[in-house]
Specification:
Elements: H1 3-10, H2 22-31, H3 37-45, H4 53-60, H5 74-81, E1 105-107, H6 109-112, E2 125-128, E3 131-134, H7 139-142, H8 157-162, E4 185-186, H9 187-196, H10 208-221, H11 226-257, E5 262-267, H12 273-276, H13 287-290, E6 295-296, H14 301-312
Helix pairs in contact: 9-10
């Protein structure tokens, strides 16, 4: 028997003929019943018992592993990757802190804008939190058309902290609302919203099975009181502002300690932030900044710890 005859004989018997042309293939694909993500994956994201708080949260949120509470925060990983210790936050005046070795040059924001590398006769300056640094030693990084050119000739403290670089309104020293990226999201509060609501935070409807599972977990751990929520928010605001200061300090220390760059002076002639930005809306945090929000387990911490301990046994 020929090899082609053998292949024909061994071909699995099916009740449907396979598509012979690309057009038939497209029609076959289009005629398949469409299933939602939940229908396709519920067997894997609905476990047999409570354990799936972790998976439940992933389904509720955006399935981003960097938000899982037992992992390092993105900020910690950033400092580890650069071989630096995470800076300890300290209370500083966001517009008056200076280095003891800083230069004496004083420029307004308008004057600073001339030092953006477009005039070959002028040095290239950047400013962070009002401190001006000469980065002329790295024209391939800060010169016109280069990767960091958007920082040159301006104080873009906001972008240094948030890593939001567009639109241009993000390249400012307006720090209003930046602390929101460091305000934690609580798993137990998210669980309550899932158990009681009809749609998830992203607007998608909450599947009945997920809602039932959330309600079952909530019965075991209890709800979060209004007093507890208020206490958390007050503490979170303090911690978030410290995180903003720590991020600013990190970049100030980086340029002061690098060896290639020189702190030459300060930006002057500014009104207070309240006066400078009165009547304006602060730039919205970009998606990448919003995704850096830390996650806290809240009342679910023990449950999740026990679950992980059982999983690792």
């Amino acid at each position: 028997m020929s090899s082609s005859g053998l292949r024909q004989r061994n071909r699995p018997q099916t009740s449907l003929e396979p598509p012979r042309t690309f057009a038939e293939y497209k029609r076959a694909i289009a005629s398949r019943p469409k299933k939602t993500f939940w229908e396709q994956n519920k067997s894997t994201i609905i476990p047999a018992s409570l354990i799936s708080l972790i998976v439940l949260y992933i389904a509720i949120s955006t399935a981003r592993p960097d938000l899982i509470p037992w992992l390092h925060s993105r900020s910690d990983l950033h400092h580890q990757a650069h071989g630096r210790k995470r800076p300890v936050a300290r209370s500083v005046d966001s517009q008056t802190s200076t280095s003891s070795t800083a230069g004496t040059l004083e420029l307004t924001d308008g004057e600073l804008s001339k030092y953006n590398g477009e005039d070959a006769n002028l040095p290239i300056y950047i400013a962070i939190n009002g401190s001006i640094f000469d980065v002329s030693a790295s024209p391939n990084f800060y010169g016109p058309g280069t990767h960091y050119a958007h920082f040159s000739g301006r104080d873009a403290t906001r972008a240094w902290v948030t890593t939001c670089f567009s639109p241009l309104s993000q390249l400012t020293w307006d720090m209003r609302g930046v602390e929101e990226m460091f305000m934690p999201s609580y798993l137990d509060e998210q669980l309550e919203r899932t158990a009681e609501g009809t749609v998830m935070d992203n607007g998608d409807p909450i599947p009945d099975e997920m809602k039932a599972q959330a309600q079952a977990v909530l019965k075991k751990v209890g709800s979060v009181s209004r007093e507890e929520v208020d206490r958390r928010r007050k503490e979170d605001v303090v911690e978030a502002r410290e995180e903003v200061e720590a991020a600013i300090k990190h970049w100030l220390d980086f340029y002061r300690d690098d060896g290639m760059y020189v702190e030459v002076g300060r930006v002057v002639g500014r009104p207070s932030p309240e006066e400078a930005f009165a009547g304006t809306t602060p730039p919205a945090l970009c998606e990448s900044a919003r995704k850096k929000r830390p996650v806290k387990s809240g009342k679910l911490e023990k449950t999740m710890s026990d679950t992980m301990a059982k999983f690792l046994q």
